[in-house]
């Protein structure tokens, strides 16, 4: 850190240069860890966001520094348009104080928590924001990561209407080397925590419950449960929130049903994974909120496991897609029904159709990365173009 930078009480101020590189311009956020700054990186001449932790050498500040390192390792290993991009992580000593910092992309937008201060969102906006969150969680979960703190302040609504998930500092990994869980410590935000989290157990379905809480709030303008932490610890496992349909009568039944499933007390009663939630939300958006105009088809997502060697050096491989198509013997369109006794479709009117596609795995592909095959998704409606096929990479071993 540059000597002579302005500071008070150990908090860095405007003009500070971290490690001779990142010049802090103005604060744009704050939390228990310290501050978030708009900063300039002259090495690549770009504006970035820098989360700065000011430590005092205590055990708590050491844990916060470990959390910063954790966020850099976790989010830095993910590649996704709805997950914040991590550029750098470091620390510097100055006047006996540790200043750990995390450099991420500077997002143009507002935290969802700020947006919600103006009231509930329009139904299409709530659904489309939830699509972005579910999409991001699907990639994180596919890489073996559970976020554990999905809440409005960790979701940035960008100027183009898309949403980005931030703050992976308390993420739970399937790799025990990266698990910073401390026995007896409540990790997360009680207003958005799944019931099982209060007992110290959680998995990817706990994130889906938190998404349900956020979606409920976007739709109604109210959190499912309110009160002190002690109230919330009792409410989440034992009480039901006010019926969503009573708080917003215009909510489509399919959306009400999905929120109820996300908020199920038993994780087994929730949707199986985040991609399933994303596709359900996109179908709700298509069914209830389009205007009968040409619509682009839904994107399709499939998972593909690759070996560490292919992930490192790349290769051309093939993927097999299985679909249902009109039975060539007796039906002209899906769902039309078929002829009784038809040997091809047993009277359903549909037959299995398999297609094989070549896909190039680029060198250095990361777990959870999405490889796009344009136009191979579901067909569009009313003459709209087909969606894209995204192959979500999983690295074996």
Automatic annotation (TrEMBL):
GO terms for molecular function: ATP binding; protein serine/threonine kinase activity; unfolded protein binding. Keywords: ATP-binding, Kinase, Nucleotide-binding, Plasmid, Serine/threonine-protein kinase, Transferase. SMART domains: S_TKc. It is an enzyme of class 2 (transferase). Residues 22-289 form the Protein kinase domain. One of its GO terms (biological process) is protein folding. InterPro entries: DnaJ_C, HSP40/DnaJ_pept-bd, Kinase-like_dom_sf, Prot_kinase_dom, Protein_kinase_ATP_BS, Ser/Thr_kinase_AS. ATP binds at residue 51. Its EC number is 2.7.11.1. This is non-specific serine/threonine protein kinase.
């Amino acid at each position: 850190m540059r000597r002579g930078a302005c500071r008070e009480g150990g908090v860095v101020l405007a003009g500070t240069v971290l490690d001779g590189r990142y010049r802090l311009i103005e604060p744009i956020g704050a939390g228990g860890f310290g501050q978030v700054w708009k900063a300039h990186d002259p090495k690549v001449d770009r504006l970035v966001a820098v989360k700065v932790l000011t430590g005092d050498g205590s055990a708590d500040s050491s844990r916060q520094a470990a959390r910063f390192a954790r966020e850099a390792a976790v989010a830095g290993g993910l590649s996704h348009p709805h997950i914040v991009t991590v550029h750098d992580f470091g620390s510097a000593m100055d006047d006996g104080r540790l200043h750990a910092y995390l450099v991420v992309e500077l997002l143009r937008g507002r935290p969802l928590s700020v947006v919600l201060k103006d009231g509930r969102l329009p139904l299409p906006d709530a659904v489309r924001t939830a699509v972005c969150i579910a999409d991001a969680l699907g990639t994180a979960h596919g890489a073996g990561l559970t976020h554990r703190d999905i809440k409005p302040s960790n979701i940035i609504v960008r100027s183009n209407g898309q949403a980005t998930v931030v703050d992976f500092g308390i993420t739970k990994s399937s790799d025990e080397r990266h698990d910073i869980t401390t026995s007896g410590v409540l990790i997360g935000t009680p207003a958005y925590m799944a019931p099982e989290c209060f007992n110290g157990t959680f998995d990817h379905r706990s994130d889906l419950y938190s998404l349900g809480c956020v979606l409920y709030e976007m739709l109604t303008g109210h959190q499912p449960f309110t009160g002190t932490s002690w109230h919330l610890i009792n409410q989440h496992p034992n009480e039901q929130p006010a019926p969503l349909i009573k708080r917003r009568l215009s909510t489509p039944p399919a959306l009400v049903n999905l929120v109820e499933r996300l908020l199920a007390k038993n994780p087994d009663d929730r949707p199986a994974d985040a991609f399933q939630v994303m596709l359900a939300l996109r179908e709700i958006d298509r069914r209830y909120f389009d205007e009968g105009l040409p619509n682009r088809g839904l994107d399709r997502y499939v998972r593909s496991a690759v070996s560490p060697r292919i992930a490192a050096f790349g290769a051309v491989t093939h993927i097999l897609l299985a679909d249902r198509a009109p039975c060539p013997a007796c039906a002209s369109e899906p769902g039309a029904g078929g002829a009784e006794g038809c040997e091809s479709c047993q009277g359903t009117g549909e037959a299995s159709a398999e297609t094989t596609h070549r896909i190039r795995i680029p060198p250095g592909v990361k777990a959870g990365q999405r490889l796009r095959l344009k136009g191979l998704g579901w067909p569009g409606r009313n003459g709209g173009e087909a969606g894209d096929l995204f192959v979500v990479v999983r690295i074996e071993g």
